[in-house]
Amino acid sequence: MTDLMAARAQMAMSLAFHIIFAALGIALPLLACAAEWRGMRTGDPGYTGLAKRWAKGTAILFAVGAVSGTVLSFELGLLWPGFMRHAGAVVGLPFSLEGFAFFTEAIFLGIYLYGWDRVSPRAHLAAGLVVAASGALSGIFVVLVNAWMNAPVGFTLAPDGSFADVDPLLGMRSPVALAQTLHMTLAAYAATGMAVAGVHAALLLRCATRRDAVARRFHTRALSIALAVGAPAAVLQPLSGHYSAERVAVTQPVKLAAMEGQWRTEAGAPLRIGGWPDERAEQTRFALEVPKALSLLAFGDPNATVRGLDVVPRADRPPVLVTHLAFQLMVACGSAMALVGLWGLWAMGRARRTGLGIDARPRLLLATALSAPLGFVAIEAGWTVTEVGRQPWVVQGVLRTRDAVTPVPGLVVPFLMFTALYVFLGVMVAFLLWRLIVATREAGTPAGLTREYPVPLTPAEPAAAAS
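The chain above was modelled as a monomer; its predicted structure follows.
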């Protein structure tokens, strides 16, 4: 493995690990706030218990996310000094704002975790909302940096290759900034909401076999809140993806060609579903082609010309196979999750009119449980498209990846060390989350409820909670 490949692999692994915690940190506090708000409105301690358990999950994920995020900040300087030397004046502002949002999130997360009985209920809920908002802003500022890397603005290139006349505020308004931040933020809410809904749907299916009415009520409440956050985001996600693809077609036509397996420039280009790009033969084999659909989706004109990979030399093309397959996987997972989200929203709407709750729909529960990991698979695939599809550039059209890497040799050693670190952290997080899920499952039992709250589940159900 070359030093360049080792540096890229280490950065890819770090980002793939961290982005899961970033997405969860954006959306999980909102779920906790929604549950707490419902508890305040209804006086039902079951909602408060749910908020406390989601807050515990937020704390675990925040701690590990802080570690992985810190590693990433060091890697930018240690592995990519060329990038920081040239682009630091532009990306320094959004990174600084991200740090401010991160510290704000950390401060108010402490208040939220330890202030349940120390501040007023309204102040406590307000602290949770600050955590949710600052987490979202933190993600947005980081994505603004990536948007600038894909469509750089806010500087002029001096004859020696350095950046001059830097305007960091203009740099934050990249032509793809809105598309990328919208797409990533919706992805975080969709992935987290549907994953949490999937966990409680699976627990509801388990309750159905045991006929545990108290547990069913507990997990139905959790499922409803998670779907209320995740399902609308999952339904809107394909629309934001279409908008993002339109911006890619204008700003990064080579990336679009790699995403779609479009080898030759042509008018009325077809949309390819599936397929296996053959880079030697410059063909995409086994794909289902929809005539003129790519031209229509990318430019709103079925006869529009779509530039293919033939517009650039082979050395300037991204890895087409990886980009195309990752894009297809992202679209497939996002589409499946959107369908399940639509089904869930329809079922919740029907429940208000007919009284048939979502817990009484086993097929919906099974589909929700099976779709739980799809959002995070789509996030990983989408970031693969974003990063691999930009190669061989670290800043599109300005700075090549090979010119940004550190000249220090032996980069395979830190790559292996950090791989071991992330494996260890991943195992620990999985163990802690599993313990939390087990505790949540036990919380849905009468014994679990009365242990934490020596009052009935609701004032109207004293007999059910005590039985």
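Confidence is low (pLDDT under 50) at residues 446-467.
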